[in-house]
Amino acid sequence: MSGYGDIAHLGHVEMLTDKFEESLDFFTRVYGLKLSAQTETSAYLRAWDDYEFCTLKLTKSDTTGVGHIGYRAASPEALERRVKAIEESGYKVRGWIEGDLNHGRAFQFEDPFGHVFEIYFDTVKFKAEGADTPALKNNASRFHHTGAAPRRLDHLNLLSSDVTEFRRFMETCLGSRVTEMIQLDNGRIGGCWFTVNNKGYDLACTEEHGGGHGRFHHVTYATDQREDILRAADIFLENGVHIETGPHKHAIQNTFFLYVWEPAGNRVELANAGARLILDPDWETVVWTEADRKKGQAWGLKTIESFHTHGTPPVKAK
Amino acid sequence: MSGYGDIAHLGHVEMLTDKFEESLDFFTRVYGLKLSAQTETSAYLRAWDDYEFCTLKLTKSDTTGVGHIGYRAASPEALERRVKAIEESGYKVRGWIEGDLNHGRAFQFEDPFGHVFEIYFDTVKFKAEGADTPALKNNASRFHHTGAAPRRLDHLNLLSSDVTEFRRFMETCLGSRVTEMIQLDNGRIGGCWFTVNNKGYDLACTEEHGGGHGRFHHVTYATDQREDILRAADIFLENGVHIETGPHKHAIQNTFFLYVWEPAGNRVELANAGARLILDPDWETVVWTEADRKKGQAWGLKTIESFHTHGTPPVKAK
Amino acid sequence: MSGYGDIAHLGHVEMLTDKFEESLDFFTRVYGLKLSAQTETSAYLRAWDDYEFCTLKLTKSDTTGVGHIGYRAASPEALERRVKAIEESGYKVRGWIEGDLNHGRAFQFEDPFGHVFEIYFDTVKFKAEGADTPALKNNASRFHHTGAAPRRLDHLNLLSSDVTEFRRFMETCLGSRVTEMIQLDNGRIGGCWFTVNNKGYDLACTEEHGGGHGRFHHVTYATDQREDILRAADIFLENGVHIETGPHKHAIQNTFFLYVWEPAGNRVELANAGARLILDPDWETVVWTEADRKKGQAWGLKTIESFHTHGTPPVKAK
Amino acid sequence: MSGYGDIAHLGHVEMLTDKFEESLDFFTRVYGLKLSAQTETSAYLRAWDDYEFCTLKLTKSDTTGVGHIGYRAASPEALERRVKAIEESGYKVRGWIEGDLNHGRAFQFEDPFGHVFEIYFDTVKFKAEGADTPALKNNASRFHHTGAAPRRLDHLNLLSSDVTEFRRFMETCLGSRVTEMIQLDNGRIGGCWFTVNNKGYDLACTEEHGGGHGRFHHVTYATDQREDILRAADIFLENGVHIETGPHKHAIQNTFFLYVWEPAGNRVELANAGARLILDPDWETVVWTEADRKKGQAWGLKTIESFHTHGTPPVKAK
């Protein structure tokens, strides 16, 4: 039994920053997320149409990278099924936590590369009131037209030294499907794109080349239109944000993309997949070879070097 | 047990036309679908990134409207569960058919208003070869940049004299969820938007005001960008196609839309929902009141009269 | 001698408002202009890429409508030629003024319908410093991504009881060319679109149907893309701005448009003409008949009633 | 006397191709120009909203590059003024020719680098009839939605070994203004952007680094929207066209661009400048330094090597 369907969607990502104020300014004023709440250690952020209270938890730290990754289960029963599967899997279990400002009790566990995951069903939905009230009642909150202002959390990308092993983890624990992957000539998997629903992917894992452990590659929010991303490029330019690469279109997943680094160095993406969805229940994984990849991105852009080497936290030279 | 999850997605719509050649010319050259196959009575059409062999079956007829609606099940087991539920439901069952050019055996049944549905799992996927081979292997076929060229089938809209009853039918037979609805002051439901997956809707049902039975309101394909729809408006204009209303944005579902009539009079839409998805597993139905609806569409456009009265086939004056 | 070429471009419009604070908030926070300076009576506004210090002078008043319209001459010599032509024309001359915060000495005169015009060459260019410094030095100032944030002033529209006479005024005084016009069945001109350069129009005049005198129909800024206007529609919606009509595409001039009313009731437009320019030096005026106009706007939208009757200041019932 | 204003606009470019059939197929089916006429040696092409009969004359040749460049004068008198100025300038004069299928008598002359120019007033305007009749009478012909389908000719780019000298040529002969330029650290001008009207540029000249003479860098047509260019990128991809660089945004002139090579190797661009125009009659040339240029294009893309070296015809190794 695959478990596909037990997990509803990627819920939130906790990002660590050692430049908390600058990072928070970037995410609220430039990238255009909304601040739901702030504690001494963390800011709880969300896109204007994210229905949950928080999809990006920004946490003060002495380093950068990812704190944990939260997925919401499809039902209380589905949550129990996943917990049972995880407990039986042999992967490292951290156990239940009481919850956080943005969700109820959650079950935490780890992948073999040190990334912390949690799954939960009880959540805190954002209550749009006052200045947050949307003009259209089917939106989670008011479109605040601030900065890039993406609509919702889309996906994240992790690094691991063994993507084949990471794949087994995702299939076992979350029931994720692999929609696309890179098959290297050396027999290894170069990258895998996972989904638990109709999105093309909610998590990607690519091979770690920097010798790091538990590292983070990027987190991505979705915009409604590609034009929103072109406009965002100007916003980043005018605000002195480091644009790493893009806008361009990925061959893999057809995603129109733009990558920048937030002030602490974590990579952040804006992406638009158009109307593309994975609706086919027996979708066959698309396999990209090294020869395919040599063509560059969809329109020929060569992947720049830092994209292969930069992850957070940075790996210290010995 | 709700049955949600048993059906994967809307698969195809059969549209009847009494002007077959003109309709086929419209759908291939202007609207921009691809012709997969043609028999003496029907043309099997699909958008360039529809993975199935056919999503619009255009059939010669002495009338217009909808022939039948096909949904694909998530698995053979899920199909059996749905068949059992339908058989126990008391709705009119037509039983199994052997299949068609575009899918295997299918189970047919009817809603109380005369629309024919079928569900199936075995399908015919489009094999992209020769001139249809896409440059990017994760696309179902080559982007042929002909006419409006939408990416995929999105949804259809049916008319019924009792939307509350139609809703019971959709929930019982397909396990559909209602994401949004119109609650009239007279206690009736004015319209319901249904989904079986993460799309905001794959089928809408609005109240029949013309005295017709089993009528069809429109079928819709999704474009990647809103700009595709603005461009399509010029294409329709230059090709003498009747533009009924739009482009504008629906308040309900936030969909950017454009409605035209194909040569035989069937209403056809192009739509773009941006990055909007229904990811929340316990999404609460959004209820629009008559007072809400008086504000017009999202940006204030008043719904034009023909939108309330025109369906196919037209109702003959007695 | 036509005088075409003597005037470089429309420079600024003075708009009167009896709700100064609300109007200023609208133009800066929602419409997205920048405030260059403010005096006790006026705010000097400009779009982020307008090179002059002010293109919209917003002035406190006990009424609404247009204060005056400024055009910049192509050179000091061209200015003198125009002044001479105007003085010889018999149109009402107000004479030279010393200047304003946003330009040097200017020559003022009136059309027969009470609108005040001025022409000038000496101007005040915006000096982009500090937070206004653009990332790209060929922009007039930083793209501030606030509200709709159009790029530059585009055109204005005045009402007159005799468009034929208004046309003679524009040709005589400014050397304007008529690129398009509406020829009514009754022999009158329903509207004229004028230009002094390669833009399709910088001023339109349409027939006054409300019995007013010297009234104003709207002022328009240009956005880079049509998507900017769709996005602006959401911004207006979320900020409670009255959207009168649009977004849609004008048949005349092919302009993609959106009309709203600023808080005091003055009509304001956002427009995008794509790459359309009038490059032909012997362009023949395009004449639209009433029959043409009955087709509605480019994609069929019917012109709403208020568009024919609402001007500022409103005409008081007797 | 500057002569600015005497020339109305860039009229047409003659491109040489040693793969005539392939080039013609590219320009009509993929790039989306319309064929006005064809002779034994040339195809006369135009964009759908170009008012002249031909803006790209594609000519069979044993080489590639540019045949000649045509500019249309603002009036017969302006043409005479320019001819006189050119004759007095000392630049090489070829003299009057009778005309071509696309224009009347023209005066031909050469820049010091071997590029042939001609100026003319009498032209052949495109008569839109039959299937070319546009739905909107203010368009030059029907929007045919074929391939990339740009709206109009925009500019071309030539190579010269001495841009300072080329600049003198353009100012003297055409009265062109320099809106932007690159000032190299070695004192030379790296590139100049010229205009005769309100467009930011109609001709650019950049320094020849390949040792060629009279070479051509690219010709460009303008699209209405940036989205048209993103869509075109997919069209080029699906048709096997070599995409050299882009889509991205130039820092210089703010132009959103995409460069491809037509089958014979001539570089062709699609560009969109948004609403940007040069309206200021005393616009001061924007000077970009080498330090500025090191930042890459507007959003950081590094200029690829071939952009500096590839011109047509190719320079043969000795």
Automatic annotation (TrEMBL), chains A, B, C, D:
InterPro entries: Fosfomycin_Res_Enzymes, Glyas_Bleomycin-R_OHBP_Dase, Glyas_Fos-R_dOase_dom, VOC_core
Ranges for domain VOC: 9-122, 152-273
A Pfam family that the UniProt record links to this protein: Glyoxalase
SUPFAM superfamilies named among the record's database cross-references: Glyoxalase/Bleomycin resistance protein/Dihydroxybiphenyl dioxygenase (SSF54593)
Keyword flag Oxidoreductase: yes
GO molecular function terms listed in the Swiss-Prot or TrEMBL record: dioxygenase activity
Keywords (A to Z) from UniProt: Dioxygenase, Oxidoreductase
Keyword Phosphoprotein annotated: no
Protein name as it appears in the record: Catechol 2,3-dioxygenase
Species this protein is from: Pseudooceanicola albus
